[in-house]
Design brief:
By secondary structure, the chain is an alpha/beta fold. The protein has 14 helices and eight strands. An eight-stranded parallel beta sheet has the order 1-2-3-4-5-6-7-8. The protein binds N-(3-methylbut-2-en-1-yl)adenosine 5'-(dihydrogen phosphate) (ZJS) and zinc ion (ZN). The site of zinc ion has 6 residues, from strand 1.
Length: about 350
């Protein structure tokens, strides 16, 4: 029965060999079945089972249930050693899936019991990233420091200061800030000063926006920043209770969207794959990047997400190639790295289309 929780199918070879860019991946949501097994073995006293950390194919959960899953994973990942292992495994898994550039995001967490501090948390993730690079893993990784909206104004400001420090001291590994957490908790207006400060000091902003209905006012406010990328944006367009004004603001500022099909279907914010808002934005020619969100929790990987987008919306291999290539321009990587990535895509093309 244990086998049931592993990835239930594998994407077609074209999608696995396709070079890919992953821009929306929460570290603790990306922990694979194999890594969870190692963590459970380390902490048998917690009595945690696999079905508490992953949502299998065909299953759906309410938002609330999904966020409880993260609490369980956080119990399993609460020491420097755990974070180091998790980060290394996640980076290696994305690389094995053909991801050539990854922006990983995570919420710095303090754990009094184990002596973990927020600063050590971030340092440990970055050490794991550097070790992967040293090992020759074929992937470039950058980090976004995450603000959990639940924690309010002061924590948000502290987090920005921490991110600022790291941006200045890690020669380019920390590139920006993420705003995430349960979208039904807290309000963006309390976080605005912290986000303004982040933007002014040169941190890029990737914000979860309109992930649930009736956040019009908050979204309108946060779009004034404007953010550099939007996570989900599920309820921006008028057909689903958003507004043309919101859509116009996103289009006018040319803000790329990070779209996570399986996450939204399993988390029940979209009714089915064919009704995913990818269709709306892709048809408009708006920069749309396919991402996983939480590949561990949602039992998926980026190859599968590309394949799902292609089969659901009738994309040709050529369309899919363009989609993955255009994601390079949506990264927070410096121009030189973007150019290198574009060259890699050119070099890899014959192998993918052989
Ligand atoms: C419920 C559902 C459909 C989840 C997917 N959508 C999400 N929306 C907002 N924040 C998220 C989502 N997935 C992960 N996160 C954030 O990422 C955290 C886990 O990764 P980390 O500890 O930051 O390394 C969660 O606690 C939460 O703050
Ligand atoms: Zn997310």
């Amino acid at each position: 029965s244990v086998r049931l929780f592993k990835m239930e199918k594998q994407a077609d070879i074209f999608y696995r060999e396709l070079p890919k860019v992953e821009l929306h991946a929460h570290l603790n949501g990306s922990v694979s079945f194999q890594t969870i097994e190692k963590l459970i073995a380390r902490k048998p006293h917690l009595n945690i089972e696999h079905n508490m950390t992953a949502i299998r194919n065909g299953q759906r959960r309410t938002m609330d249930e999904c966020f409880r899953v993260f609490k369980v994973i956080h119990q399993l990942v609460d020491t420097e050693e755990d974070i180091f292992m998790v980060a290394k495994d996640v980076v290696n898994e994305f690389a094995a899936d053909g991801v050539k550039y990854l922006e990983l995001r995570s919420t710095p967490r303090e754990e009094i019991k184990t002596g973990l501090t927020k600063r050590r948390y971030v340092e440990t993730v970055l050490e794991a990233v550097k070790q992967c690079k040293g090992d020759g893993v074929d992937i470039d990784v950058r980090f976004l420091v995450a603000i959990d909206r639940r924690n309010g104004t002061e924590v948000a400001m502290e987090t920005v200061k921490l991110a600022e420090d790291f941006m200045l001291s890690t020669d380019g590994l920390v590139v920006g800030l993420d705003l995430s957490g349960d979208p039904t908790v807290g309000h963006g207006r309390d976080l605005l000063p912290a986000l303004v400060r982040a933007k002014n000091c040169g941190l890029k902003l990737a914000l979860h926006l309109s992930e649930v209905p009736s956040q019009l006012e908050e979204t309108e406010l946060l779009l004034t920043l404007p953010p550099d990328r939007i996570g989900h944006g599920t309820f921006l367009h008028p057909d689903v209770g958003g507004s043309q004004t919101l859509v116009d603001a996103v289009v006018k500022n040319n803000i790329p969207l990070e779209l996570c099909l399986t996450s939204n279907v399993k988390g029940q914010t979209v009714p089915c794959y064919s009704e995913h808002h990818f269709k709306f934005w892709y048809q408009m020619g708006h920069p749309s990047v396919i991402c996983t969100d939480d590949k561990g929790v949602f039992s998926t990987d980026l190859s599968q997400e590309y394949e799902l987008a292609a089969t659901t919306f009738g994309l040709s291999h050529e369309d899919v190639w363009k989609l993955s290539q255009q994601a390079i321009d949506c990264t927070f990587a410096p121009e030189t790295l973007k150019q290198q990535l574009k060259q890699r895509w050119i070099d890899l093309r014959p192998r993918v289309f052989r």
